[in-house]
C-alpha cells in the first residue's frame, strides 16, 4: 500500500449533508495491475488529500468500507458491483465507487455519482479514460445541485431535497441559485435544496469577456488581477460571471484547468450588486459590468477588492471577497 498525503486542490471536496468530505481515495487493484494502479495514483496526485493503492482480495471492500470516501476499482464493473452491493446503505453515507478498466479506456461511476464518483471519473480523464456518466443531469449535459454546490464551495444541507431539485434541473425549471444573507431564519419545503458555504475563506474572480475569448487570455487576465491584490490561484473560491456567459468555452476551459468551479448570476442579481466602474453594456443591453458585479455578488462580504482590469480587449476581471 502507498499513500499520497499531498494537500487537495478542491476536487471532490464538497461535504455532504452529514458533513463528510470526499477527499480520501482508495485504488483497489489485482496484483498483476498494481503498477497501473500506481500510475493512476501518480496521475491524481495533488487533487486529493489521500490516495492509497490496495491489493484486491475477496473482502477488500468490506474491510475498508467507511475508511475512504471513494473507491476506484481497477477491475471489471461486475466484480465491484457484486462486492459492494451488500455494503450499500444510504447514498449520503456510502462511499462513492468508480471502476476503470485495465486499459484505462473507461471510467464508470457506479454509486455516489453526485458524491464524488463523477468528479473522480472526470479526473481520470486526464489519464485518457472516458468518463461514462449515467446520472441524469450529467447525461443531459446539465449541472445538478450538487455540482452547483461544489462550484460555489458549498455543501448540501438537506440531501433528500435534491431528488426534486435535480428533476427541476432536467426540466430547465430550477433557475439560478438564490443567495440569502443573514442573520435570518428560513422556512423551506422538501423541494428546496439548501446550500451552505464551506468554512474556508477566499476570494472570487469576477470575469467578463468578448465572445470567443481564449483560455490563455482568461488565465493571464485572472493571474494579473489576483497579483494586483496579492493573491494567487490557491486563494480563489470560484470564478463568477453572468448567466449569458455560462457557455463561454475559453472561460470554462481555463476554470477547468485550475480546478475551479464557475458560478453564474442572472441580470437581476448583478444589477443589485453593480460595481463602481461605468459599463457600456448597461446602456446597450441592460446588463451591468459583469466582472465587478459578479465579484461583489459572489463574495462573502460583497466587497470589491480589485476594480475591473481589462486584458487584451478580450477579458475583464475584478476580485471580490
From TrEMBL:
The enzyme's E.C. designation: 3.7.1.12
Residue stretches making up the CobE/GbiG C-terminal domain: 203-319
GO molecular function annotations of the record: cobalt-precorrin-5A acetaldehyde-lyase activity
Class of this enzyme: hydrolase
Superkingdom, taxonomy of origin: Archaea
Assigned keywords, A-Z: Hydrolase
Location of the Cobalamin synthesis G N-terminal domain: 60-138
Protein name: Cobalt-precorrin 5A hydrolase
Gene coding for it: cbiG
Amino acid at each position: 500500500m502507498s499513500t499520497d498525503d499531498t494537500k487537495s486542490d478542491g476536487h471532490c471536496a464538497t461535504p455532504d449533508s452529514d458533513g463528510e468530505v470526499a477527499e480520501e481515495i482508495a485504488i483497489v487493484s489485482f496484483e498483476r495491475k498494481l503498477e497501473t494502479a500506481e500510475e493512476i495514483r501518480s496521475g491524481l496526485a495533488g487533487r486529493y488529500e489521500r490516495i492509497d493503492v490496495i491489493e484486491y482480495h475477496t473482502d477488500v471492500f468490506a474491510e475498508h468500507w467507511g475508511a475512504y470516501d471513494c473507491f476506484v476499482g481497477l477491475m471489471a464493473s461486475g466484480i465491484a458491483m457484486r462486492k459492494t452491493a451488500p455494503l450499500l446503505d444510504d447514498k449520503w453515507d456510502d462511499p462513492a465507487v468508480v471502476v476503470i478498466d485495465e486499459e484505462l479506456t473507461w471510467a464508470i461511476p457506479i454509486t455516489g455519482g453526485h458524491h464524488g464518483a463523477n468528479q473522480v471519473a472526470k479526473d481520470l480523464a486526464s489519464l485518457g479514460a472516458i468518463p461514462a456518466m449515467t446520472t441524469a443531469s450529467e447525461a443531459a449535459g446539465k449541472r445538478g445541485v450538487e455540482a452547483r454546490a461544489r462550484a460555489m464551495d458549498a455543501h448540501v444541507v438537506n440531501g433528500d431535497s435534491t431528488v426534486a431539485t435535480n428533476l427541476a434541473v432536467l426540466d430547465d425549471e430550477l433557475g439560478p441559485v438564490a443567495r440569502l444573507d443573514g442573520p435570518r431564519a428560513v422556512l423551506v419545503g422538501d423541494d428546496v435544496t439548501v446550500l451552505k458555504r464551506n468554512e474556508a475563506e477566499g476570494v472570487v474572480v469576477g470575469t467578463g469577456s468578448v465572445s470567443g475569448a481564449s483560455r490563455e487570455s482568461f488565465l493571464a487576465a485572472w493571474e494579473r488581477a489576483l497579483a494586483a491584490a496579492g493573491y494567487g490561484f490557491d486563494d480563489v473560491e470560484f470564478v463568477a460571471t453572468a448567466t449569458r456567459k455560462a457557455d463561454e468555452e475559453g472561460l470554462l476551459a481555463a476554470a477547468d484547468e485550475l480546478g475551479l468551479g464557475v458560478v453564474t448570476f442572472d441580470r437581476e442579481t448583478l444589477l443589485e450588486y453593480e460595481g463602481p466602474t461605468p459599463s457600456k453594456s448597461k446602456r446597450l443591453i441592460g446588463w451591468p459590468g459583469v466582472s465587478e458585479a459578479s465579484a461583489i455578488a459572489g463574495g462573502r462580504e460583497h466587497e470589491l477588492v480589485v476594480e475591473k482590469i481589462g486584458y487584451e480587449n478580450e477579458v475583464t476581471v475584478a476580485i471580490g471577497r
